[in-house]
Specification:
The complex is a heterodimer of chains A (about 425) and B (about 350). Among the domains of chain A are: about 175-310, no CATH class; about 315-365, Winged helix-like DNA-binding domain superfamily/Winged helix DNA-binding domain (Arc Repressor Mutant, subunit A). The longest helix of chain A is centred in the C-terminal third of the chain and has 29 residues, at about 370-400. In chain A, helix 1 packs antiparallel against helix 2 (about 20-25) and helix 14 (about 220-235) runs parallel beside helix 18 (about 295-315). In chain A, a hairpin with a 4-residue loop joins strand 4 and strand 5. Chain A is mainly α and about 425 residues long. Chain A is elongated and about 95 Å long. Chain A is built from 22 helices and five strands. The relative contact order of chain A is 0.04. In chain A, the strands form two sheets. In chain A, strands 3-5-4 form a three-stranded antiparallel sheet. Chain A has a two-stranded parallel sheet with strand order 1-2. Among the domains of chain B are: about 25-80 and about 85-180, Cytidine Deaminase, domain 2, CATH 3.40.140; about 205-260. In chain B, about 40% of the residues lie in helices and about 20% in strands. A nine-stranded mixed sheet of chain B has the order 1-10-9-8-7-3-4-2-11. In chain B, helix 3 links the parallel strand 7 and strand 8 (about 140-145). The N and C termini of chain B lie far apart (about 85 Å). Classes of the chains: A mainly alpha (about 425), B alpha/beta (about 350). At the A-B interface, helix 21 and helix 22 of A face helix 7 of B. Chain A: It is found in: Cytoplasm; Nucleus. Chain A: Belongs to the CSN3 family.
Chain lengths: ~425, ~350
């Protein structure tokens, strides 16, 4: 008890002196064992730390509570954490981000088990607001937030964070794991697939797959399966099944695990018929059910039909509805007409249907790219490119000044005074 | 030549006289142009005419001095008033350094004196203080004075020799000079003279004359067009009788005009072509931006690979990046590129 008192006095002193880096040192292990061992007194200790001046000490205490084998009153703890996040001072927290993240992980885990995901979302949302230094920074809390949002199907909080592109990762004093990065992109992709923005979902899944890796993660495999389906639904079918820059071992794992069920789909799309597709899906239905991708599979079927119709536009100028239904292997002309009207409305196809003789006439694209909105769009895109280029230049500057790089380039040439040709 | 006396202040320690001088002086036009430019620049930038000072450089050969070039003084606590109580000190460090640099480039140029731009009532105590500061560099520096307000048929340049009388009194004695030019100077002066000289009748130079001509022409065109417009309006309202020939001519004149802002049928075609061209140009700009971005990305990735190349699998082509003995590096590694997270 004496050491505990001493410890508390010590950290109080450091806080009032404002020596935050020393305080962070004192509060990280092994010193923090004082708190974990005396967990029963923790409530009284917490009461002595008013916020926001003693944010760091409070954070350390909450973290000790979280690390304990069981938390006595979880709801009370949740309210404590909530008030803490709302009233603490951000600059103190920046010294100990990993504590806050671990608290959030434990909360998420607990809420997931109890099926009470909705409760945790505001807390995590505010925690991210507090902790991130700039809009483009990724924290491990992001993956927790996305997970909870998926569990309770409430996507808005997640979307505000998904919209901004990530340009930086908060190291969290070494505790940021690659798992969090992969998970945040994986869940983000799933969220986008739920709200039917399939392009961006495919982009996110691709990020998971192509993350540089020396060992394949299960997350990447799952992401690949969804990537295939989402890519097919979004309508753009790439020539390669995988981007060429995925790591070698990820490629091999995927080939061995998923090729029969998923990669085959690509081939089917290009050269198969609807009956073949249905047959194929039925054969592997169990696998899809196990991966919980059945919903996506159904949407893929729709995309398959749209794709077949689009392929018809490449061969025919006009076609009768009956012929269309036969070629695409639809049940009836009415169904074909329904699909056509949907596609015309979505802008996937340009055609007109002549009801009198049941003919469909395919047109070329009427877009001539000369309207004012096209100009505005082009200017917008140019702006974005310039922004991105500025960021890239900054990254490049950082890397060329980094120690590792300078060491490597010095090592490479035996003639130190020869000018190097670096492009 | 008549002797002139100094300014109205009663107790002065300088007098200006003309008479026999101990040196003969040649003056390059470059000196005059530099001094004039310095004065004009200061006047335009600071919006009131402060006296400017600078150093004269020249070649001294026995008793003949040839003034070739100038540069400006750097003044410390320069005051903008011209009262006789002002003290202006020259930054001697800067001066000596500058002279050294000039000596390296032109070994034959020496510090021969200083210049000022002032009218006839000049500030003698300042000049005396200058003299005392500069006498360490040259025992008898020359003073060149450019008169910005005087009007005369000759050049408003006066050069004075300094003579120390009885140890404290400084005399400025005006001396005569001749102009000598080099080829380069001649071309420059010719150009300036041609385009900026004012002839006796008007106050403007030739450049402004040319602009005035164009302005008058446009004004005349506008007036004529107003007349035509009046005529057509009157015909429309029935006040004047209709002359078909005239109307036909006006019609053909209109059709020769550019079609940008008219509201008739020509506008549609023009608008379409214009839009297409506009979006083409914007598209090209976008392409340029993308290329630039890709090039930066390529540089970044190359550097990234340099750092991380030991994670490269040995089954990749070449195994490593093949650092050859010349220090050259292959830009392309194996089948593995790190993805960007943007």
């Amino acid at each position: 008890m004496a050491t505990l008192d001493q410890f508390v006095v010590n950290i109080r002193q450091l806080t009032t002196d404002g020596k935050f880096s020393d305080l962070a040192q004192a509060l990280s292990s092994p010193n923090v064992d004082h708190l974990t061992k005396n967990i029963q007194h923790i409530d009284s200790i917490i009461a002595t730390f008013p916020l926001p001046e003693y944010s760091m000490c409070m954070l350390a205490c909450l973290h000790a509570v979280v690390k304990a084998p069981n938390i006595p009153d979880f709801d009370l703890f949740l309210t404590q954490v909530d008030t803490f996040i709302q009233t603490s001072s951000a600059e103190q927290i920046y010294y100990l981000p990993q504590y806050l993240c671990e608290i959030c992980h434990v909360i998420t885990e607990r809420l997931r088990k109890e099926n009470r995901a909705r409760v945790g979302i505001p807390i995590l949302y505010r925690a991210i607001e507090l902790l991130r230094r700039e809009p483009g920074q990724l924290l491990s809390i992001h993956s927790d937030l996305y997970q909870l949002c998926l569990l309770c199907q409430w996507f808005e909080p997640a979307l505000t964070y998904l919209e901004t592109d990530i340009i930086d990762i908060n190291r969290e004093n070494g505790k940021f794991d690659v798992k969090h990065l992969l998970l945040s992109y994986y869940y983000g992709g799933m969220i986008y697939a739920c709200i039917k923005q399939f392009d961006r979902a495919a982009n996110f899944f691709e990020n998971v797959i192509t993350a540089p890796a020396t060992a394949t993660s299960a997350i990447a495999v799952e992401a690949y399966k969804k990537y295939v389906l989402v890519k097919l639904i979004s309508g753009t079918i790439p020539t390669n099944h995988l981007p060429t820059y995925t790591s070698r071992n990820v490629q091999q794992t995927i080939k061995s695990l998923c090729s029969t069920q998923y990669t085959e789909l690509f081939n089917l799309f290009n050269n198969g018929t609807l009956t073949q597709f249905d047959e194929f899906v039925n054969r592997h239905r169990d696998q899809y059910a196990r991966d919980r991708n059945l919903g996506l599979i159904k949407q893929t079927r729709n995309a398959f039909i749209c794709n077949s119709i689009q392929q018809l536009t490449k061969t025919f100028l006009t076609v009768s509805l009956k012929d269309l239904a036969n070629r695409v292997q639809l049940q009836s002309t009415n169904e074909a007409e329904k699909y056509l009207i949907d596609m015309i409305e979505n802008g996937q196809i340009f055609a007109s249907i002549n009801k009198k003789d049941g003919m469909v006439i395919f047109h070329g694209s009427p877009e001539r790219f000369d309207a004012n909105n096209m100009l505005a769009k082009l200017q917008d895109e140019t702006e974005k490119r310039m922004q991105a280029e500025k960021q890239l230049k900054e990254l490049e500057r950082q890397i060329s000044l980094s120690k590792a790089y300078i060491q490597r380039t010095q090592q490479s040439s035996p003639y130190h005074d020869r000018p190097k040709i670096l492009n | 030549m008549a002797a002139t006396t100094a300014s109205a202040a009663a107790a002065t320690t300088t007098t200006t006289t003309t008479g026999k001088s101990s040196v003969t002086l040649s003056l390059h036009p470059l000196v005059i142009m530099n001094v004039a430019e310095h004065h004009t620049r200061v006047r335009v930038q600071t919006a009131h005419a402060t006296p400017v000072y600078g150093a004269l450089l020249g070649k001294i050969k026995g008793r003949h001095v040839e003034l070739c070039n100038t540069f400006e003084f750097k003044l410390t606590n320069a005051s903008t008033t011209t009262t006789t109580n002002s003290t202006v000190t020259i930054d001697m460090d800067f001066l000596t350094k500058k002279l050294e640099l000039i000596r390296q480039v032109h070994p034959d140029l020496d510090f021969t004196g200083w210049y000022t731009v002032e009218s006839k009532d000049w500030n003698s105590p300042v000049m005396s203080s200058f003299y005392s500061q500069l006498s360490s560099l040259n025992e008898s520096p020359l003073l060149l004075r450019l008169d910005p307000v005087g009007v005369s048929n000759e050049l408003p340049i006066h050069v004075y020799e300094t003579i120390v009388d009885l140890g404290t009194k400084i005399d400025f004695i005006e001396i005569s000079y001749t102009l000598i030019t080099e080829e380069a100077e001649r071309i420059g002066i010719d150009h300036v003279a041609r385009y900026s000289v004012t002839d006796g009748t008007s106050d403007t130079s030739i450049v402004s004359d040319q602009i005035a001509i164009q302005y008058n022409a446009i004004r005349l065109l506008y007036q004529r067009m107003l007349v035509l417009l009046e005529y057509v309006r009157a015909v429309k309202q029935g006040q004047l009788e209709r002359n078909d020939d005239l109307l036909r001519e006006i019609g053909s004149l209109c059709q020769r005009l550019p079609i940008i802002n008219t509201d008739d049928n020509n506008n549609q075609m023009f608008r379409e072509d214009f839009d297409i061209q506009q979006s083409d140009v914007a598209l090209l700009a976008l392409l340029a931006c993308c290329t630039q971005e890709i090039s930066t990305l390529n540089d970044y990735l190359n550097k990234f690979q340099v750092i991380h190349d030991k994670q490269q699998h040995s089954s990749g082509p070449g195994g490593s990046f093949g650092y050859s003995s010349g220090g050259r590096r292959m830009a392309r590694g194996g089948a593995y590129f790190p993805a960007s997270f943007v």
